[in-house]
Design goal:
- This protein is an alpha+beta fold and 217 residues long.
- 29% of the residues lie in helices and 23% in strands.
- The chain contains six helices and ten strands; from the N terminus they run αββαββαβββαββααβ.
- It has helices spanning 10-20, 57-61, 89-95, 131-139, 170-181, 190-207; strands at 42-46, 52-55, 72-74, 80-81, 101-107, 112-119, 122-125, 151-157, 163-169, 209-210.
- Strands 7-6-5-8-9-4-10 form a seven-stranded mixed sheet. Strands 2-1-3 form a three-stranded antiparallel sheet.
- A hairpin with a 5-residue loop joins strand 8 (151-157) and strand 9 (163-169).
Length: 217
Amino acid sequence: MIAAGRTASPAASLLRLTRNRPQPAAGERCEMCAEPIGESHSHVVNLDTRALMCGCRACYLLFTDEQAQLRYRAVPERYLHFAGLTVDGRAWDELQIPVGLAFLFRNSVQDRTVAFYPGPAGATESELPLDAWAAVVESSPELAVLRPDVEALLIRRTAEGGGSCHLVPIDACYELVGRLRTLWRGFDGGTEAHAAMDAFFAQVADRSRPAAGAGAS
């Protein structure tokens, strides 16, 4: 205790502040309430900035109501496989996506469908009109189960003209893009990037269930 009429020296004050300073938090924390979260955790999308936020389960559940007019929306955890649904070469050319991999989602703020494809700089948005996508959806109405902002249609085309089509959480797409950014070489990605894609799509296939009859579940 400091005696009356005396002031603490700058060194003593600094020492006291240092002793009382909280220790830095270890591990990841919810970006909304700062509660500790594990390595495997849920995400919430900021609809205005498109940023993904790490969230604890309690905060995540606050934003699961799809009808609520909120700035944030919880990213669902479902994976679906559209068996037999691929985008043929002509339709892919009309979408004007330069590589054989892309994810598309409905941006509710812009009120349009946007497409992203991977590259050495990360996810590149296709700035070209996507009117051709409306034709794809018209011919495949099962795609209507895609939830705006939080789910994406992940399409991969092979050189032989085949490929796969999955509905995945939007955070899975950004995870894939993050992996590929460090591996991508040249125009088509190179051997390492393709190996990473193979591993990623194997995980997606394991987690996916048939889209037929999935509805809004």
